[in-house]
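pls ignore typos typing on phone
zinc ion + seq
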Amino acid sequence: MITSKSSKAAWIAAFFDGEGCVYIRNNPTLRKHTMYRLTVSNTEPILAATYASFLYDLGVETVTYCRERQSPKHKPITVVDVRKAEAIVRFARLIPLQSELKRNKLSELVAWINRDRFETWNSRKDQMLNLWSAGHSARCIGRQLGLKAGSHTMVGRVLSGWGIEVMPYGRARVQCRCSIS
Ligand SMILES: [Zn+2]
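k done
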């Protein structure tokens, strides 16, 4: 019985090392059409379900579907995808892949996702830097930008990307005027 988060992460890593694929399709001329996902395919539904449920336990959202095959002699294939950018970044952080090839491709994908992000965030750069200079915390800036709760980590990462020294959680600006009121 696998119960701890680290053994679930290790199980997922071993399964993905064997059955997984980091899928990236880049078309530089059609940036909106960039597609990516982490996908595993398996003929054993129980293995696919275990993979999906362990990922769920680690906070990584998945999509599961079944692919019928041409020949009735072949078992249908269960496919489990990690599609959302946030989920892929989390997967990369938590799952200790051994396959160097897959690990490198995943790093490449995470870099691509973050690059996309930074371009979107750039339109808010002046506003965010002003808020930071005025002494607001990353959490407060996230709230003032109308982002959902928990976005402060991303706000911190974005500010760091602009050369601001944001201390890690715990030593960060935990509160500012606004959070108290
Ligand atoms: Zn504030």
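Helices lie at 5-19, 45-57, 85-94, 100-122, 125-133, 138-144, 152-161, 177-180. The chain has two domains: 5-122, 125-180. more later
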